[in-house]
Design goal:
0% strand, globular
Length: 159
């Protein structure tokens, strides 16, 4: 190809179709739970863990994913983690929701996850997992009217 000529046909230099938009995750995926969110993302944390919001955020992103508790997951979600971070957090969130469903807790985490529309659009496998979790938890959700309506809306959107 000569100087100044444009490539046609929407293919990259190696002959593959160019990817447009977000990657769709149709299957389960593996995440190293012994690494922190900061390690996975290549973030440096200048803030020391402490009692304030920034300190709690720093502690959460520096803690290994498999050791995050519900309060830390809620903190990360309420402070607006990006889609790539949520992709890494989903296996942990799903495990906590499954465990907490048996105990009847975890409603704030569940409510926050139901509102993550961008995540669900690119993670149909995770969306299916969430629908299954909601169906298994139907009786407990009936005792929480606000959460029940969120779950019903989510399930209807997912159909």
């Amino acid at each position: 190809m000569g100087k100044g000529q444009k490539r046609r046909g929407g293919k990259s230099a190696r002959g593959r179709k160019k990817q447009t938009g977000a990657q769709i995750h149709r299957k389960a995926y593996w995440v190293n739970l012994s690494q922190s969110l900061a390690q996975h993302r290549g973030w440096t944390c200048d803030e020391a863990p402490g009692p304030g919001l920034r300190g709690r955020w720093s502690a959460a992103v520096q803690r290994p994913l498999g050791q995050l508790d519900v309060a830390q997951l809620v903190l990360l979600l309420t402070q607006g983690v990006d889609a790539d971070s949520l992709h890494l957090l989903w296996p942990v969130i799903h495990a906590r929701l499954e465990r907490d469903a048996a105990a009847g807790t975890g409603s704030s985490l569940l409510a926050l996850m139901l509102g993550q529309r961008q995540f669900w659009s690119t993670h149909p496998h995770a969306q299916t997992q969430m629908v299954e979790l909601l169906e298994a938890r139907r009786d407990a959700l009936a005792r929480a009217p606000g959460l029940e309506s969120l779950a019903r809306d989510f399930t209807e959107r997912s159909s």
